Amino acid sequence: HLFFLMYFINCIFAGQVTYSIPEEMAKGSFVGNIAQDLGLDLKRLRSGKARIYTEDSAEYIELNKDKGSLLVKERIDRETLCGQTTPCALHLQITLEEPIEFYTVTVEINDINDNAPSFKKDEMKFRISESAVIGAKFMLERAMDLDVGVNGLQSYSLKPTDNFNLKLQNQQDGSKKVEMVLQKHLDREAQEHLSLTLTAIDGGDPQLSGTIRVEISVLDANDNAPVFTQEIYKVIVTETAPQGTVLCTVSAADADEGSNGKVSYSIKNTLDDVPIMFEIGEENGVVTLNGNLDYEKSKDYEIHVQASDEGGLTDSCKIMVEVTDTNDNHPSINIMSKTNSVSENSSPGTVVTIFNVQDPDSGENGKVSCFIADNMPFLMKTTSKKFFSLVTDSDLDRERASEYNITVTCSDEGVPSLSSSVTLTLQISDVNDNPPVFERSSYEAYIVENNTPGLSIFTVKATDSDWNQNARVSYILEDSSVNGVPVSSYVSVSADSGVIHAVRSFDYEQIKDFQFRVKAQDGGSPPLSSNVTVKIMIQDQNDNAPQVLYPVQTGGSLVAEMVPRSADVGYLVTKVVAVDVDSGQNAWLSYKLQKATDRALFEVGLQNGEVRTIRQVTDKDAVKQRLTVIVEDNGQPSRSATVIVNVAVADSFPEVLSEFTDFTHDKEYNENLTFYLVLALAVVSFLFITCVVVIISVKIYRWRQSRILYHSNLPVIPYYPPRYSDTLGTGTLPHVYNYEVCRTTDSRKSDCKFGRAGSQNVLIMDPSSTGTISCLYGRQCRIHRDDALCFTFPINIRKSNGTVSGNSRNHRHKR
Ligand SMILES: *[C@@H]1O[C@H](CO)[C@@H](O)[C@H](O)[C@H]1NC(C)=O
Ligand SMILES: *[C@@H]1O[C@H](CO)[C@@H](O)[C@H](O)[C@H]1NC(C)=O
């Protein structure tokens, strides 16, 4: 009221009236009493038809003529009326007629705080990188307040104030620049969104305010590096792990978002082969094996892995890969030195091969042992862990095994064990260590006499188990002599073939057998040799006719046997004695009467040549009897001789003489006859003495032998007088002197009968296994061969009338 009053007074004095009212007054509100203020009475107002005139047509104020006061006719909004212009006034003209008068009335409209500050929008959006620097300014929207003066916009506030401060800056036009200033770093990772409230405040009473939300999106900056969850990863993998095996997965976290938080992994090794051997998933960090591990090449790996985001920030870690060994390597055998052949006489311990074994595996997997088959004459020797030598163990013998295939097997101790082997072929070279060996320990060969010189008798053969030259056998006749003649004049030996040839024609009657030695010698150096005894036995041929020893056949002289007329039947007239220098059947003589004066008077013993009477001699028988006896041997073809036996049948010598006068016609003949008779006597005497000596010496020998036999109880080796030894076993003793002994260790088993004795006594020794000894002509010795020996021996000589004859009754049977 005081305020109004003051205006009122002013108006009076200015001749005009000014009123001042607040805006937004209710209709009909009193503005001022102009009648009073202008000093006009109410009548004048009415009579003067007072009116309000305004330049614009708006009629906010009306005049109440009855009361002379101004009233609010329309709502008055100062902001509409004047905007920001101050002061704001309505200019009225009050006109009166009769007289026309003008009065000026000014109505000042005073502001009231009826408008709050306001923003055009509800919110403001900002996208601010978290990397924004401190002090960065961001323009905020200004608020509007229609009120003026103190009711107008006074100040701002921004809340919360954690990151931003509000900065107000007065501008020349009086308005304010509203900015927010970053005063603390944003961290998207901590707070991605900020929501601030900007409040604008006016100065009215009560204060009014308006707000706007400031929405801030914090944009990511690549301010975080990836970080591995582990600095070191440890992986153990076997060397046999296949390609593609996943070893481990590394992971790094990046707090940033988007591309700044997108981690990619890579292997950063450059110097080694790790980038080839391993692979890492760029996005997932899975580390896989890309190559083939080999413990023997590399036992461990260090993989440097880098994680990087797209902003280029990185972190790194290490993967320690430890490779474990598996037994994946076979031992390898390397022959360092090798002999292909070794001599069979090399001493045990001779080195054949040296080799080296390598197994790149470690530990047990690389521990190698080598061996060979048990049945080999070789030994495996270890000189060091990796070097082995193969030496000969026992004596070698090329003849037993000339070649060895030695399989050396080396195996490691891994589980399962791996092994490898190599086969060495070793030849055993020959040494001349075997002499030639004859197929038999001795040879006997037969050849028929009268052979052609140069005839091959038979072949000796020796083999040599050595090889090649050492086994090349040549045959050599060893020097010896046969009957004082070098054996080389009897036989020759073909050096290459071992064929024995007769050099001369043999005569059984001269030599029955002979022996010599043949040496077989190989071609080694020095040569080895062995020898063998070869006995050549010459077989008889019937190449000699029987020879009549008695009666002596002389050219002219006459020899006659005397037969007394009183002779009985079976009187032994004489005995034809013949020999055959052949042997066996060829010397088996038989006697036959070929011709006789009186065939009925005499007979000739077929076997013994005894001429006997077969009937009583009578007086009528002629004195002079002439017998022709034929002596035949048993050879094929047989040979024979004839002898004429003169027999005188007479009681007295004169009687004979008278009959035989024709025999004595020649004196010279008689002298010759006498000479022959004396000679025959001398011969017979000599033979007798010789025989006696022989018998005595044999008896002594026998006696001694029997004593020895008695003591030893052993079979006695028979004694053959050398001249009569029966080599061919045909058993013929061609001579007069036969002496038969059958001898056994048990004489009771012996069954020897000796019916006859004499030149025809033939003992056949059967060399076959029957064990029978057959004595011909009724005598048989049937004796077990092992037990008995039977032989013939000179036995009995009787001298009678200058003749020699055998006596069958006189023989020796000795045990
Ligand atoms: C050794 O091996 C060779 C070839 O494999 C073979 O010909 C020969 O007969 C073998 N020798 C022995 C003694 O096994
Ligand atoms: C013949 O061989 C025997 C052994 O069988 C030997 O004792 C002898 O000396 C050899 N003779 C010759 C002449 O070589």
UniProtKB/TrEMBL annotation:
The keyword Calcium appears for this protein: yes
Domain Cadherin: 13-119, 120-228, 229-333, 334-438, 439-548, 563-660
InterPro entries the record matches: Cadherin-like_dom (IPR002126), Cadherin-like_sf (IPR015919), Cadherin_C (IPR032455), Cadherin_CS (IPR020894), Cadherin_N (IPR013164), Protocadherin/Cadherin-CA (IPR050174)
Keywords of this entry: Calcium, Cell adhesion, Cell membrane, Glycoprotein, Membrane, Repeat, Signal, Transmembrane, Transmembrane helix
PANTHER family: CADHERIN-87A, PROTOCADHERIN 1 GAMMA 11 PRECURSOR-RELATED
Keyword check for Kinase: no
Organism of origin: Sphaeramia orbicularis
Membrane-related topology note: Single-pass type I membrane protein
Pfam family for this entry, one: Cadherin
Record GO terms (molecular function): calcium ion binding
Transmembrane region(s): 673-698
Name of the featured protein: Cadherin domain-containing protein
CC per GO annotation: plasma membrane
UniProt function note: Potential calcium-dependent cell-adhesion protein. May be involved in the establishment and maintenance of specific neuronal connections in the brain.
GO biological process: anatomical structure morphogenesis; homophilic cell adhesion via plasma membrane adhesion molecules
